[in-house]
């Protein structure tokens, strides 16, 4: 069941299969998180490991990259994604089946300046969010991500979803959800539309100070929604008990106002949210809809609820039950409203993507975190909503996103 009242443009009825070294049969396994694990995929015996293989083609150190069927036609991939192939495949670079690795990566990311070396060598190059393999030899350099699945471009027509106008009548036997996120204590002046259930996916404060939480709770108390469901984000520092335990042990200059708090000031900070249902790795059933909320995000500058990519995050996602109707996370999955132009990167979580598409398959996946990614997408089954209210400049000008879902059991 898709959502009534929204316009979903044609696409496949089921998500396309994922490709790449991070994919395996159930249970889902994490992307290799250490260089040693990644290097283990490239055996000298020529056997394929983790879906990607490198082999020396000749004594002249020519390197061939062999990947799965998704990347079998580089030319078609470059054409499909409107990429200038000549910028990525200079004459001295030998690329075999590596074309679709390059999708969604700006041209400036790639440099093919050859460095003389006696033997080809494999180096892991860590960028802001992705780890790359760089194969270097006397004649060539090839950059390949350590995982090979790149979803469609954020603006691809087949992925677009049109939001429901605020004045559109709600269909019978439906529930209207109003989605906001990343309000950052800037709720004054936000025009809130009609709806039944409010979903707020975190960063409702700047630092999680008790005074900020009380202000947010007062705002919630003035809203007319029958149910209000809230999760924390990385800015709700005081909600992350492990983070606070570490913070109070040191004079941490980044968050002086939080560091000065006494434990009794924040031990029960969640109890200040009296006007909503607060979820933290937990679920609630509302009007027959199973809703699960979790605050964790990939590590970013040491904020709250940050975890390393890979197994640590996957352990959290594995707690999400199957058959959830609405999933609330603070951050996006890889490839769905997660593009950060300033960093020239997609920053979503690949483990979350796998969990959503391959196991949980909710009707709605609502999140925020990445202010630049505001908007809606679909993979043909799940509707992805980045409802960040604040822009990248922290102006609360992105309007709430409204969505209708048919009530469970309704015809």
Automatic annotation (TrEMBL):
Similarity remark: Belongs to the UPF0046 family.
PANTHER family assigned: METALLOPHOSPHOESTERASE (PTHR12905), METALLOPHOSPHOESTERASE MPPED2 (PTHR12905:SF13)
Organism: Hemibagrus guttatus
Molecular functions per Gene Ontology: hydrolase activity
Name of protein: Calcineurin-like phosphoesterase domain-containing protein
InterPro entries according to UniProt: Calcineurin-like_PHP (IPR004843), Metallo-depent_PP-like (IPR029052), UPF0046_metallophosphoest (IPR051693)
Gene3D superfamilies assigned to the protein according to its UniProt record, in alphabetical order: 3.60.21.10
UniProt domain Calcineurin-like phosphoesterase: residue ranges: 176-372
A Pfam family hit: Metallophos
């Amino acid at each position: 069941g898709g959502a009534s009242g929204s316009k979903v443009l044609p696409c496949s009825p089921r998500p396309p299969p994922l490709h790449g070294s991070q994919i395996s049969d159930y249970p889902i396994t994490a992307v290799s998180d250490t260089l040693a694990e990644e290097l283990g995929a490239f055996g000298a015996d020529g056997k394929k490991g983790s879906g990607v293989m490198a082999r020396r083609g000749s004594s002249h150190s020519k390197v061939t990259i062999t990947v799965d069927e998704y990347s079998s036609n580089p030319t078609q991939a470059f054409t499909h994604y409107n990429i200038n192939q000549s910028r990525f495949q200079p004459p001295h670079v030998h690329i075999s089946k590596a074309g679709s690795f390059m999708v969604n990566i700006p041209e400036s990311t790639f440099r093919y300046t050859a460095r003389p070396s006696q033997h080809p060598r494999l180096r892991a190059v860590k960028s802001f969010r992705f780890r790359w393999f760089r194969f270097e030899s006397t004649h060539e350099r090839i950059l390949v991500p350590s995982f090979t699945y790149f979803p469609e471009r954020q603006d691809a027509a087949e992925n677009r979803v049109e939001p429901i106008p605020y004045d559109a009548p709600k269909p019978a036997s439906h529930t209207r959800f109003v989605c906001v996120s990343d309000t950052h204590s800037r709720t004054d002046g936000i025009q809130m539309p009609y709806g039944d259930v409010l979903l707020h996916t975190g960063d409702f404060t700047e630092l999680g100070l008790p005074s900020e939480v009380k202000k947010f709770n007062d705002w919630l108390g003035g809203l007319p929604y029958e149910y209000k469901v809230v999760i924390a984000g990385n800015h709700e520092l005081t909600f992350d008990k492990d983070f606070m335990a570490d913070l109070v042990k040191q004079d941490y200059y980044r968050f002086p106002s939080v560091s000065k708090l006494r434990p009794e000031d924040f031990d029960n900070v969640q109890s200040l949210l009296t006007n909503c249902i607060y979820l933290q790795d937990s679920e609630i059933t509302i009007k027959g809809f199973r809703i699960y909320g979790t605050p964790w995000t990939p590590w970013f500058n040491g904020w709250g609820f940050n975890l390393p990519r890979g197994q640590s995050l996957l352990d959290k996602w594995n707690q999400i039950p199957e058959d959830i109707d609405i999933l609330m996370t603070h951050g996006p999955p890889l490839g769905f409203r997660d593009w950060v132009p300033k960093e020239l990167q997609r920053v979503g979580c690949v483990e979350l993507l796998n969990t959503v598409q391959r196991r949980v398959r909710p009707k709605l996946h609502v999140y925020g975190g990445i202010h630049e990614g505001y908007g809606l997408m679909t993979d043909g089954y799940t509707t992805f909503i980045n409802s960040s209210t604040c822009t990248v400049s922290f102006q609360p000008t992105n309007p709430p996103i409204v969505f209708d879902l048919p009530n469970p059991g309704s015809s």
